[in-house]
Write a structure and sequence with these properties.
The protein has helices at 2-17, 22-34, 41-52, 60-82, 104-123, 129-146, 153-170, 175-190, and strands at residues 99-100, 151-152. It is mainly α.
Length: 216
């Protein structure tokens, strides 16, 4: 089941990223090859056909092809989750893939934090374009998960990881961004069934909207 969990995660990652690489897709293709019997047939077929004719390259046509591919894979998995005749893949197993569900106030707060994080990323000059785009894509992915009946907690965890990697690469203080990402994760974590019986960390202090992207 570890491979199945990773397939779900990679599918979500490439859908969030949009302009994913051939290497990203290679990981998915190898996992699908290993677990084909446990996956929806259409999902396997799309991966196999795309593996033979992957839309690689810097052209607009190739870029649009990758976007469409990611969307198709995500939608097939979403539909499979609703079908009683799906194979052994248990897409609705929260123990396998932790989820969260937010009430109105928590959702509003998370979306507010996402808007603040986007402002910080756009207003901080130290980021190179690939890292700025990666962080903006991650924020958009979090906003997407927040709007779902069951958001994937791992997408938010990946956001924390991306911020940490960015901090390591540029060696600069991006504490305002880090704190907001951590608060988003804490809110989602406190609304996840998988953590109901686990003592949660000290509550993150609410933060005002940033006036200066590089200072508190």
């Amino acid at each position: 089941m570890v491979a199945i969990q990773r397939i779900i995660e990679v599918t979500q990652e490439i859908d969030t990223k949009g302009n994913f690489s051939r290497a990203d897709f290679d990981e998915l293709a190898m996992l699908v090859e290993h677990s084909a019997s446990q996956l929806p047939k259409r999902f396997v077929k799309i991966v196999e056909e795309s593996d033979r004719k992957f839309p690689s390259g810097p052209t607009r046509e190739a870029y649009n092809g990758r976007i469409e591919l990611a969307e198709r894979l995500r939608k097939v998995l979403n539909v499979a989750k609703e079908l009683p005749s799906s194979p052994q893949l248990e897409l609705d197993d929260d123990a396998l893939l932790p989820t969260f569900s937010l009430e109105k106030n928590d959702k509003s707060r998370v979306l507010e934090l996402c808007a603040q994080m986007r402002k910080i990323v756009l207003g901080t000059e130290i980021f190179d374009q690939p890292h700025r785009r990666r962080l903006l894509n991650r924020i958009a992915g979090i906003e997407y998960q927040v709007e779902q009946p069951k958001g994937l907690l791992d997408v938010l965890r990946a956001g924390v990881s991306d911020v940490g990697e960015t901090l390591g690469k540029f060696g600069t203080d991006i504490e305002p961004l880090t704190k907001r990402m951590n608060e988003v994760t804490q809110i989602a974590r406190s609304n996840s069934k998988e953590y109901d019986k686990i003592p949660s960390p000290e509550e993150v202090k609410r933060l005002p909207a940033p006036e200066n992207p590089t200072k508190e």
